[in-house]
Every structure is written in C-alpha cells, then in structure tokens.
Write a structure and sequence with these properties.
There is one protein chain. By secondary structure, the chain is α+β, with helices and mostly antiparallel strands. It has a single domain (3-102), classed as Alpha-Beta Plaits (2-Layer Sandwich). Helices cover 37% and strands 20% of the residues. It is built from 3 helices and 4 strands, in the order H-H-E-E-H-E-E. The protein has helices at residues 3-10, 19-37, 77-95, and strands spanning 46-56, 61-70, 111-112, 120-121. The strands form 2 sheets. The protein has a two-stranded antiparallel sheet. A hairpin with a 7-residue loop joins strand 3 and strand 4 (120-121). Helix 2 (19-37) packs across helix 3.
C-alpha cells in the first residue's frame, strides 16, 4: 500500500474504522469457517487461534501472522492460511477507498507441527 495509506491504517483512522483490530477478529472467525470455505477440508476441533496484524513501514503495508492450536491427527495449516487471507482481505476492504492499488502477496506457511507429517519449517531465504 502507499505510505500515506499505511499511516492512516496505523493511526486507526480509516473511515470504516480500525482495520487492524477488524482484521484480527475476521481472521479468527475465518479460521473457524475453513471447512465451509474449502470443500475438501476436514472439520478439525482446534483449541485456539490467534491473528496478529502489524504495520510494516518497510513494505509499506501490513504483515499478518496466524497461529492455530489443537490436538488432531491432521494439522491446522489450512485454518491458519485462511485466517491470514481473510485478515488481509479485511484490511483491503477497509482501506480500498484510499488505495485501490494495494496488493496482497506472499501468503505462506512458516511452520507447522503435529499431524501425520510432523514438524515442518520453511527454510530461511
């Protein structure tokens, strides 16, 4: 996003309200809705989900991270990825009047543990 848009987001003064808080709430709600959004995704009972949206002037833009926890024979990576995606879409929706050229990019898994495949971490670039 443009630096000026980021300043308005960070000041929580968008006409639609506080995009960072709304994005975090939307992300948690989205994690809970994952099996309704992805047709072949299992319903998995998770015990916790957290989403954090942070302004990064080096982008400029907002970085979003999600963590989903629970005990199951499958992992929770789809819930986390959906959470991040919807959080970023929420920020876009709330700021698009100021900056319709914003780009959502680089959504990916950083690490996971549990499930059949066990622990996995993305290699550092």
């Amino acid at each position: 996003m443009r630096p000026g848009t980021l300043r308005v987001v960070e000041a929580r003064q968008l006409p639609k309200g506080d995009a960072l808080s709304a994005a975090e709430i939307a992300g948690v709600m989205a994690a809970k809705s994952t099996p309704h959004l992805l047709p072949l995704c299992h319903v998995v009972p998770f015990t916790g989900a957290s989403v954090r949206a942070v302004c990064d002037p080096d982008l400029p833009g907002v970085r979003v991270a999600a963590s989903v926890r629970g005990k199951s024979t499958t992992g929770f990576e789809m819930e986390a990825l959906v959470a991040v995606s919807v959080a970023l879409l929420t920020i876009y929706d709330m700021a698009k009047a100021l900056d319709p050229a914003m780009i959502i990019s680089d959504i990916g898994l950083r690490s996971k543990s549990g499930g059949k495949s066990g622990r996995w971490e993305r290699e550092a670039k």
